[in-house]
């Protein structure tokens, strides 16, 4: 097989996944510094089941606002637009994909826990490490492995074989997929991101999350998502199909970031790791709530 062949099978099936209005709006605006996110809040309000979930989460112990948030507008005032946008994006995307799409090969609840974890960590990392903010970190984290959903849905047997191979060799899916598909989930993710009309930094982070040094201009988001992905694996947040042992500071993506941001050299990695711990519970809550009808 090859990327072209995989894409052909997906296109022919007529079952290209679609994303809902809220998620599409957030993705379109991602990375645009002058974006009007008021439109996102309005779109959330137009979607009663999504609005109800956003309010449930805003009133949960995570934010210490128990019972105070009665409307999306109020949530924006209390938590800030970025926070509400991220919650709405996670919940709507997970809902869009939680039907039958994706097939039976994979534990998709664990998959979304992993994806939400990577999104939260990517954004927190950007803030804690004082990296330049592109605005696409969260969305890129949430969708970095979207190619796996496509492979799992359209090629359940072949994808199942990849999972077996990765488990047997204790390596990541990305390393074994080319043997079976002639391509891998990052390349396929890049294709669907383009098909969905995502902005360039977002596309590039999805496409290069395993090879951030090839991402060119946009390599910082790709490197951040790459490290957030490693981190989620170390912390065992959810399960994205990979079985690997990782060491954060030995990773080339870390060297890539340090090269651009010399202040990272002095970072206390152990402390930084602890600071990211609280994202674990939040990722679980998002994955669980997102999958509820
Ligand atoms: Fe991946
Ligand atoms: Fe991943």
Question: What does this protein structure show overall?
Answer:
With 293 residues, the protein is mainly alpha-helical. It folds into two domains: 3-13 and 103-291, Hypothetical protein af1432, CATH 1.10.3210; 18-100, no CATH class. Helix content is 64%, strand content 0%. It contains 17 helices and no strands. It has helices spanning 3-13, 21-29, 38-45, 48-58, 72-79, 81-97, 108-128, 137-143, 146-154, 156-169, 173-181, 185-195, 200-207, 219-234, 252-260, 269-275, 279-291. The longest helix has 21 residues, at 108-128. The mean pLDDT is 88. Bound molecules: fe (ii) ion (FE2) (2 copies). One fe (ii) ion binds next to helix 12.
Characteristic terms for this protein:
mainly alpha, binds fe (ii) ion, 64% helix, Hypothetical protein af1432, 293 residues, 2 domains, 17 helices
The residue ranges in which pLDDT falls below 50 over 5 or more consecutive positions are none
CATH class of the largest domain: Mainly Alpha
Please provide the ordered H/E string of secondary-structure elements: HHHHHHHHHHHHHHHHH
What proportion of the residues is helical, as a percent range? 55-70%
Which ligands does the model contain, each kind named once? fe (ii) ion
Spatial gap, N to C terminus:
37 Å
Largest sheet: none
Using only CA atoms, what is the Rg?
18 Å
